[in-house]
Design a protein that fits this description.
Organism: Candidatus Iainarchaeum sp
Largest sheet: 8 strands, mixed
CATH architecture of the largest domain: 2-Layer Sandwich
InterPro entries: Gfo/Idh/MocA-like_OxRdtase_C, Gfo/Idh/MocA-like_OxRdtase_N, Gfo/Idh/MocA_Oxidoreductases, NAD(P)-bd_dom_sf
Strand order of the largest sheet: 8-9-10-7-11-12-13-14
CATH class of the largest domain: Alpha Beta
GO molecular function: nucleotide binding
Protein name: Gfo/Idh/MocA family oxidoreductase
Pfam families: GFO_IDH_MocA, GFO_IDH_MocA_C
Order of helices and strands: EHEHEHEHEHEHEHEEEEEEHEHH
Helix content: 25-40%
Distance between the termini: 51 Å
Oligomer: single chain
Bound molecules: nicotinamide-adenine-dinucleotide
Shape: globular
């Protein structure tokens, strides 16, 4: 097996994790990292015995990586991704693909034109609890789905200055809705607020209407504890996913007996079984990067389609438009 050379551009919080995973991966050699703050690149490079550069350009002029992860702030994704595609045939751009659909399209078009394998880091698709949830839904266990509710709330990470909570956080769940149900969003009604963020919205509530179901998003950077949960309610019961602990439960609908009396009902006897489904816990970023490397080795398509990342941005834009206008869009 030929050893693949990997590089990472952007050595902040997420880039350092990409570097760690490539460095630990069998058959992959983390050759170089870059950050415009050279001390950050140097620190990550030293940890993994790689080379450090102060820009993507410098890195690409001196190294020939087979694969590169781009983990710079989202507003720079377009420029760095376009530059990377001049040199590298396998490019992974962190989520969101870009900060607007026009930039996202440019990245996707360029990847097609240059025949570059492009993947967008929609990490929750690789969360084992979400993967199992998809299997369960497809097996028909819950029947028709009526309602999806999302909670992605927690404190404000002050390093995020360039993005609002919709494009930075809600984009995860918007992508998961597409991954699980593959239905276009028909209508959106959203409310956003800016309470403590210096530039952008840090509070979002949105209702998304699909043909067959409705989704309600509750996303913010204001809650003092981190909660990442998904509730899927359908004909035969409800699934709950805790993205953080990777726990997946199924609450079965009760088969309502004839003649149930009031004391039984208030004691909860009308509830069905609650089943904890087996999920083998794994680090989602490791699963994601393993899948990307595997697609390179097999010469197959990237494990998720960049067009889906573009769809997620289009929904983000609808949400922002609805919140601005105070109208359903
Ligand atoms: N998949 C996930 O769960 C997840 C989690 C966190 C962040 N992210 C994404 O990862 C990206 C980075 O986020 P972060 O939290 O690591 O940010 P960060 O601020 O911690 O790190 C970004 C780094 O990029 C460097 N940088 C900025 N412009 C650069 C350029 N042009 N060239 C080289 N380096 C440059 C900065 O100096 C900084 O070290 C964002 O797009 C974010 O949305 C994804």
């Amino acid at each position: 097996m030929r050893e693949l050379k990997a590089a990472v551009v952007g050595c902040g919080w997420m880039g350092a994790n990409h570097a760690r995973i490539y460095a630990d991966m069998n058959g992959v050699d983390l050759v170089a990292v870059a950050d415009k703050v050279i001390e950050r690149a140097a620190e990550v490079a030293k940890r993994h015995k790689a080379k450090a550069y102060s820009s993507a350009k410098e890195l690409f002029e001196r190294e020939v990586p087979d694969v590169v992860s781009i983990a710079v702030p989202s507003k720079f994704h377009k420029d760095v991704a376009l530059e990377a595609m001049d040199y590298c045939k396998n490019v992974l751009v962190e989520k969101p693909i870009a900060v607007n659909s026009s930039d996202a399209k440019k990245i996707i078009d360029e990847a097609k034109r240059k025949n570059v394998r492009l993947m967008v880091g929609h990490i929750e698709r690789f969360n084992p609890a979400v993967v199992e949830l998809k299997k369960q839904i497809e097996s028909g266990r819950i029947g028709r789905v009526f309602l999806v509710e999302v909670q992605r709330i927690g404190p404000f990470p002050s390093r995020i200055e360039d993005s609002g909570v919709t494009i930075d956080l809600a984009v995860h769940d918007i992508d998961i809705l597409n991954y699980l149900f593959n239905e276009p969003v028909k209508k959106v009604f959203a409310f956003t607020g800016r309470k403590i963020h210096p530039n952008s919205e840090d509070l979002l509530t949105a209702t998304l209407q699909f043909d067959s179901m409705v989704a309600v998003l509750n996303v913010n950077w204001l809650t003092p504890t981190k909660i990442r949960k998904l509730f899927v309610t359908g004909e035969k019961g409800m699934f709950t996913v805790n993205y953080l602990t990777q726990d997946l439960y199924f609450y079965e609908n009760a088969s309502i007996r004839e003649g149930i009396d009031y004391p039984e009902m208030i004691m909860g006897i009308a509830e069905g079984n609650m089943i904890k489904l087996r999920v083998e816990k794994k680090e989602p970023l490791k699963v994601e990067l393993d899948a990307f490397i595997e697609s390179i080795r097999r010469n197959s398509r990237a494990p998720n389609n960049p067009e889906d990342a573009l769809k997620a941005i289009a929904t983000v834009e609808k949400i922002i438009e609805s919140a601005k206008k105070g109208q359903v869009v």
